[in-house]
Design a protein that fits this description.
The chain is mainly beta. The protein has no helices and eleven strands. Helices cover 0% and strands 52% of the residues. A hairpin with a 5-residue loop joins β9 and β10.
Length: 118
């Protein structure tokens, strides 16, 4: 059974950091590009970052550039999102997804809550 499981979310103060993990089971993560998406209360889900299947290409939405870093370890079947300098507006449920090469999601994880608050 194909499954993606996110972890690493939590409550953090503004300016703090978190590292989210996206672990795959039931399929080989290396065959897919992986995207991180987020959905804040009352808002639509939006793309945050995407990494190619090899890890050689990454993309970021403008408002996280320089703060977030996406990476992957295909040997561990895991993708990461390092988030630094977090802001209250980063508060959302973060989802990872196996995507096509254009970062269009195909399979979703269940999400992990990130709350940035003092």
């Amino acid at each position: 059974q194909l499954q993606l499981v996110e972890s690493g979310g939590g409550l953090v103060q503004p300016g703090g950091s978190l590292r989210l993990s996206c672990a795959a089971s039931g399929f080989t993560l290396a065959n897919y590009a992986i995207g991180w998406f987020r959905q804040a209360p009352g808002k639509e889900r939006e793309g945050v970052s995407c990494i190619s299947s090899s890890g050689g290409s990454t993309k970021y939405v403008d408002y996280v550039k320089g703060r977030f870093t996406i990476s992957r370890d295909n040997a561990k079947n895991t993708v990461y999102l390092r988030m630094n300098s977090l802001k209250p507006e980063d508060t959302a449920v973060y989802y990872c997804a196996a995507t096509d090469s254009a970062c269009v999601p195909r399979y979703w994880g269940q999400g992990t809550q990130v709350t940035v608050s003092s």
